């Protein structure tokens, strides 16, 4: 049966065997070890057992328990020790089938359960309030920086600050980590951060569950979610009910952190920046990296702020996890607006760097980032100084704005005055010295005008439209050209307000006439870059030479290109260990050196042709906007020898 095991792709290690007359025979003891390597432990165990079943010899025995202890371990949630459950013993107890032991012992049904005694915590007639948040983009930056000690603090702060908006006290916290491959050291670091943050918040950390996600999830990818439950007495007034009135004052609480929602923009800025996470932070003396500053956790405002929020002097409280404008908008009813003065508070230096490096406007900064304000309070004007002084005894806070009469536009409106000036004032002096007078007077780079050529079969146009609208995008879609009328891409462009043209190739006597017409329309709209999204016409050599280094396309394969259109089938048939898609410059002769961005996928083990095709489609939707941003920002360009050059 050894040959059959080998045909199954298994490895068989010999221990107690010998050669006799040219044959392999047993020589006692542990004869053979059958080994399977798979993406998943359960799958590997099944394959190894299949291999064992193919091998026969007289008196053969084998263990049937190998691997099951590991399976049980992976299926169990991971818990903190009893010492890390921070509320006094009468308040909380737990049952579990795992290593966490407290009063209550084990549950026969498995799983994890915890009980919280609200009366023992001093509540008489409580209302429970819950909040759940997750970290994705920021966790991915932490993975790149190989620094996870602040991630747990960020997650707890997001959840607990959300409870404060309702005037609730946090009671207990749970979390869930899902990742492509478990890393014990990373898990322990994140758990310690969560435990420390829960201790600061005065709430119990009941535990967490960890899931190892099977392929196609990349091994380094992680998602972290948290869930917190809090309480307040039924008679206590809930905050955040939009009771702000004209004449009220806005107080801002300082926080240097950048919340997870903004890290989608941060990652795009890092993609095109000459700095990396390991580079010295702008304005630092080299003792702090850019990654360290970006991963500074957001401030958690409980429990010190809770007495002030329950004093009756505060009309509303909102964290700025959705950006400065998003936080304030939660506090304003439609019949009022707000004016903020950015010169009234301290903006951390990192926001100046994001502003300049990301090619952002002041409005985009306020929409995307908290800009140094972690939360905003609405207070009646005659009580503002009293509340401000109470807060300033514990942390930085400022009077940052006021509620005003509504403007003529529908809904509430928020104006942040002097933000560009305040951002520049926050810049370290040495960076200001390096900034030219021209860039100071015109901080934003002009967006590159882009046309998209389609034929009705492409899938990437909506992704390109969405990416061009994101803060920090260096591309402006000004035209969509189709060689066929009535296709969906034309309707998508029209809905987005992008001009469209139909240039039917059937109406032209030659390919050069058709291309010349396209060229004239591109010149009419002052187009600088062209993206091909499922464009089914072969462009002529004169057209490609004129627009050399200005035409981008994607291929549903990694270079070298697969030309026959079977990119989703060939990896399955040829046994490729990796597949993916490529964004590249379009040249007369395709070249691997013209690659702009590759989006690799995990090995296509077990994928059907349809499943792999769908994964490649999703990869193209991610890759093309990134490739366009790299070229439009000037981070990548086509060199004289037909190879992609990169800004260092």
Summarize the structure in words.
A seven-stranded mixed sheet has the order 19-18-17-20-21-22-23, with helices on both faces. A six-stranded mixed sheet has the order 12-14-11-15-13-16. It has four domains: 2-75, Alpha-Beta Complex (Glycinamide Ribonucleotide Synthetase, Chain A, domain 4), CATH 3.90.600.10; 123-233, 2-Layer Sandwich (60s Ribosomal Protein L30, Chain: A); 248-430, Alpha-Beta Complex (Phosphoribosyl-aminoimidazole Synthetase, Chain A, domain 2), CATH 3.90.650; 448-560 and 577-646, Rossmann fold, CATH 3.40.50.170. The chain is built from 22 helices and 25 strands. The two termini are 58 Å apart. With 648 residues, it is α/β, with parallel strands linked by helices. α5 packs parallel to α6 and α17 (461-469) runs parallel beside α22. The longest helix is centred in the last third of the chain and has 24 residues, at 609-632. β18, α18 and β19 form a beta-alpha-beta unit. Pathway: Purine metabolism; IMP biosynthesis via de novo pathway; 5-amino-1-(5-phospho-D-ribosyl)imidazole from N(2)-formyl-N(1)-(5-phospho-D-ribosyl)glycinamide: step 2/2. Residues 1-71 form the Phosphoribosylglycinamide synthetase C-domain domain. One of its GO terms (cellular component) is cytosol.
